[in-house]
Amino acid sequence: MSAIVYYITLPFIYLISILPFRLLYLFSDFLYFILYTCLGYRKTVVLQNLHNAFPQKTEKEIDTISRAFYHNLCDFMVETFKILTISKKGIIKHCKFNAECLAVFSKYADEGRSVILVMGHIGNWEWAGHPFSLLCKQRLDVIYHPLANKHFDRLMFRMRSRFGTRMFPMKSAFKEMLAHRKEVTATVFISDQTPMPESAYWTTFLNQDTPVFKGTEIISKKMNLPIVYACVKKVKRGYYEMFAETIVENPAATTDGEISEIHTRRLEKDIIAMPESWLWSHRRWKHKRPVSEL
Fold first, then answer.
1. At CA 139, angle to CA 238 and CA 260, rounded to 5?
2. Is pLDDT of 294 > 70?
3. What is the pLDDT of residue 200?
4. Domain total in the chain
5. What was the pLDDT predicted at 290?
6. What is the Cα–Cα distance from 217 to 213, expressed in whole angstroms?
7. What sign for the dihedral angle of Cα 83, 85, 88, 94?
8. Dihedral angle sign, alpha carbons of residues 60, 65, 67, 68
9. pLDDT at position 183 over 70
């Protein structure tokens, strides 16, 4: 059944991908009408997440953020499909790396030092890797969770690696990083995944008890790789800008939990500044803090 769904859907995905941007966003507006107005896709989850994260906001403010989030979500979906056919010139034009951002990565590449690049599901994280692979000196490695549908997983793999990005499944991330440690790389970890509660670092994030994936901290300390935080901010519809800054220069010298706390607080700051850009539709807070962590 999964293969049938894939092969029926694939021509429509390519059709969306080849649309000019003006028509692409008209389709996104139609998709918003379907998902938000007609289906109410995950609206209960989104509204509950927003209410919990921003208890001080009024119903009107929550509704405004919710609607803006769904518009961004639909744009993100069609923009992801655009990766299949967009040119190198096009992706660099639509997802800009400012001079300060490029300077951060150039510095480490010139020093022959690999880095860990930590990001969240904010802005268009799918677009960000492509201009990196085209503009930066180091090899970009992305840690990802394979999709359950093997056909769509291959499609996403092809899109994400189209301009040279290398993909590693989460379960073999550390092994792959060790195997390529003689190369100068930037390895991307998405920090706002939902880890198993027993193995997570627990903190308060957006006013809620939240488990944080510890892999970023554990691996960076073992390999003593500098940690760079990056965020893709929307400039206007169809255009993004990448910002980056070093948040931990010497991970080996940090205490337990310090790195997890630093990158979580940095992501939280960006979410508060532009809440409509974060992925509110995922069930980020489905686990309760274990008794041992209280």
1. 80
2. no
3. 93
4. 1
5. 83
6. 8
7. negative
8. positive
9. yes
Q: How confident is the model at residue 194 (pLDDT cuts 50, 70, 90)?
A: confident
Domain assignment present for residue 96? The answer is yes
| CA torsion through residues 11, 13, 17, 19, sign | positive
By the 8 A CB rule, do 16 and 5 touch?
Answer: no
What's the confidence (pLDDT) of residue 34?
97
Q: Which two tokens stand for residue 284?
A: 């980020």
Q: Is residue 292 part of a domain?
A: no
Provide mean pLDDT across the span 243-249.
97
**What residues make up the domain containing 92?**
2-281
Cα–Cα dist 230/140, whole Å: 13
Average confidence score pLDDT of the chain? 95
User: Is residue 202 one of the residues assigned to a domain?
Assistant: yes
Task: Show the tokens assigned to 255.
Answer: 């205490």
d(CA 240, CA 238): 7
In a domain, 291, yes or no: no
**Percentage of the chain modeled with pLDDT above 70:** 99
| pTM for the full predicted model | 0.94
- Token pair, residue 219, equals 């691996």
